[in-house]
Amino acid sequence: MAKKFLPVLLMLILLIAVVGCEKDKETSGNANGSGDSKDKVTFTYFNAASPGKDGNTNETTIGKIFEDQTGVNFKTEYLVGDINTKIGTMIASGKYPDVLVPDIAIDKVLDAGAFIDLTELIEEHGPNLKKLYAPHWEQMKDKDGKINFLPFAAKHGYIKDPNITQGAFWIQRGILKEAGYPKIKTLDEYFALIEDYKKKHPEVNGASTIGFSALTYDWRFFALSNVPNHLAGYPNDGEVIVDMKTHKTDVYADNDITKRYMKELNELNSKGLFDKESFVANYDEYLAKLASGRVLGFFDYGWQVQQALDNLKAAGNDDLRYMPLPITFDGEKDQYIDPPAFINNRGVGITVSAKDPVRIIKYFDNMAKEENQKLMFWGIKEETYSVDDKGKFFQTQEQYAKTSDEDFRDKSGLNTFEYYWPMGDMLYSDGNAWVPGKQPEVAQVAYTDGDKAILEAYGVKVFSDLFADPDDRPWYPTWSAVIEQGSDAQIFGQRKTDLTKVYFPKLVLAKPGDFDKVWDEYIKEFNTLDVKALEELMDKVVEDRIKAAAK
Amino acid sequence: MQIGSKAAVKEVIKPSVSISTKSNKSFFQRMMSQKALLAMSLPFLVWLFVFKYVPLWGWSIAFQDFKPARSLFDQEWIGLEHFKFLFTDDNFWRVLRNTIGMSTINLVLGFVTAICLALLINEIRHIKFKKSVQTISYLPHFISWVVAASIVSYSLSLENGIVNIVLVNLGIIDEPILWLGKEKWFWVINGLTEVWKNVGWNTIIYLAAITMIDPEQYEAADIDGASRFQRIRHITLPSLKPTIIILLIMNLGYILESGFEAQYLLGNPMNLSYSENLDIYVLKYGMSMGNFSLATAAGIFKTVVSFIFLFTANHIAKRFDQPRLF
């Protein structure tokens, strides 16, 4: 009996599967709502840029205020899993959420024509948006003159981030303390300090100390390959450096600066100061190593090691925490701090599936008002921040603690609205920082006694005071340039990464006598690549951006 | 289960096709008399068609400059451009070498270890011990590759890795070796990892085949005074031969599938030139660049090679009058 039953069951399952594949009925279509009504309506919002908690914006304090103002609520959904798969599925099905933040997959979304042109909508319904994005209006236009999405962070004025979230050479504070807080600027001084300290302290907490470590895992390899560029006094322009006078771009992976840095690391390695595991450790192992306090120095971007730095801060031993330093080859002027930049390859757009684009753009427009931007980033006056008699925003210890608490941030909406919506950056018209983290008064509230002591020893108020101010670079950052999928420039980029991934470890770990031989081998292979494809494209990007900024 | 069913399909279809040329009447008569069999095979035919033949249509992507979400008529046709890119790229030949190298090692090691373990387990008389050996050897099969790769990379690490500690203490090596940084060792490490993870699982089919052997043969051998080793050599192994050959032929079809996760997770800048395989290459130059056409072209190449391997192996088996797939 069972024998007969099984095939029948299988057949049934198959039938259901086949029938179930029938296409869903399309429900979308751009209904032209009046847009003036305050009727309650819910749209969908998908954020592929970051993980987060799914929910409704009107369940948060700030989102509720916005709903009262516009009648609009967003059902928010965040990325789980692989971004390319998720966005790829959306494109294949042709069904999108009303509002989409596609992050790095934005090219695919644009290729598929999934975003509607916002130009007219903004002209008609978005006076505040227009005002917010006015400084970048020309840069926002696509090749065909359309505005397909609203990039994040329209810059108004300039304020330096008090903390180092970008690149720096980091060194353990205990080393600086023992050496009497010397002012060090060059790479040689930096390595000498580490060498000296390691000799005196071969062990930390019973494990051997590691002189200098590097992160090379997967796509994070740039944490190693970008360094020569920084040491030569350039900001993080990705794979190229841009000449300040001629504005010509140059892929520097085969330049003398790269050779010099590799040679320095090679010498470091021969002295036993370089962490050999750098080239095999994955990202988690790297972070764990930093948090263990065994590593004396490393180069990385602040945002990439934040987790390890936080762990060290929580552990409370100030000597094991790290201090960021603006190291260059010979004491050149450093450019570690990003120039004021407008990133126009990330943003939020309204999709072709959106039911009522007018209502959505009106919601965005309402958000773009300065008082509402303050609400999104600073929260509610007297509850999450206070204002002194000169109109300066600040946070008390309690307010700082409150806004650092994830639970509170979720409930209030500070997390929901902290990024990924139409937004500005830098300074409000009243001179306050757009986001609390950039207000020096707020940064100082967060400093521990150890932070204050080391800052005082160096005679500065905040960490970034040690770093030089950025020069004006209207093309910055070239890494945000849109490189066409499958183009020669993109293939060059991938091949260059592959080649450097093979040769950099060889260069660093080679016997010092063999270094030049390995370098020549590397250059020989490098010269077979189509480097012009990328440089020509980048020259064009730089030229276009200078033109756009001049308008 | 699947193999059996497919064979059943063939038995039903073949005669009916041949008869249909003779007379329609007897064809329908036959069909009616075998309707139960036909009905049972129908789902598998549908399955085969939907999941194996319909996707073949997607191969056309390889000859286009494919852009998603556009209709077929809006695509640009560029002929063999993508194949040309593949075959002129040094990297492609390097990853091909790695793929074939690693899958050959996996194939040989996988077969030898699984058969040996099956023979050994079969010789264990203590039931509880036997069961626990089996369970322990299966276990790694059920952990995800992410976890497995972490375990491997921690055991091979320079400072606290158990492999280095053991080897140094035994005096086999003087100082710890950065195993995952030795590029040429990667194939071996990958092969051993694969064995550790799957050997228990792979023995199941051999153990099943062993239980089919008639116990009387062993009794007869015992009476003739055969030792344990002789019984394995002259009874167990020959009885396993058909299973081994069929599995070998089937696995030869997967010669270009050397796995993806192990290489991806254990790969690092230092062993890149030996760890990167075809699948990682496709991921890098095809999927993550949005170049689906290239990925498809590589897929077609893989299929063609697998096809050739499978048929050659099957043909050789036929020549030597051994069990074969078809």
Structure notes:
The complex is a heterodimer of chains A (551) and B (326). With 551 residues, chain A is an alpha/beta fold. Chain A has 22 helices and 18 strands. A 6-stranded mixed sheet of chain A has the order 2-3-1-4-15-5. Chain A has a 4-stranded mixed sheet with strand order 10-13-7-14, sandwiched between helices. Chain A has a two-stranded parallel sheet with strand order 6-18. In chain A, helix 6 crosses helix 14 (357-367) and helix 11 (256-270) runs parallel beside helix 20. Chain A is globular. In chain B, helix 1 (2-20) runs antiparallel to helix 2 (24-33), helix 5 runs antiparallel to helix 11 (228-252) and helix 11 (228-252) crosses helix 15. Chain B has helices at residues 2-20, 24-33, 35-53, 81-87, 90-123, 127-138, 145-155, 162-169, 186-211, 215-223, 228-252, 261-266, 272-275, 278-287, 292-319; strands spanning 64-65, 76-77. In chain B, strands 1-2 form a two-stranded antiparallel ribbon. Chain B has 15 helices and 2 strands. Chain B is mostly helical. Mean pLDDT of chain B is 87; it is low at 1-21. Chains A and B meet through helix 1, helix 3, helix 4, strand 9 and helix 20 of A and helix 3 and helix 14 of B.
List its salient traits:
heterodimer, A: 551 residues, alpha/beta, 22 helices, 42% helix, B: 326 residues, mainly alpha, two-stranded antiparallel sheet, 15 helices, disordered N terminus
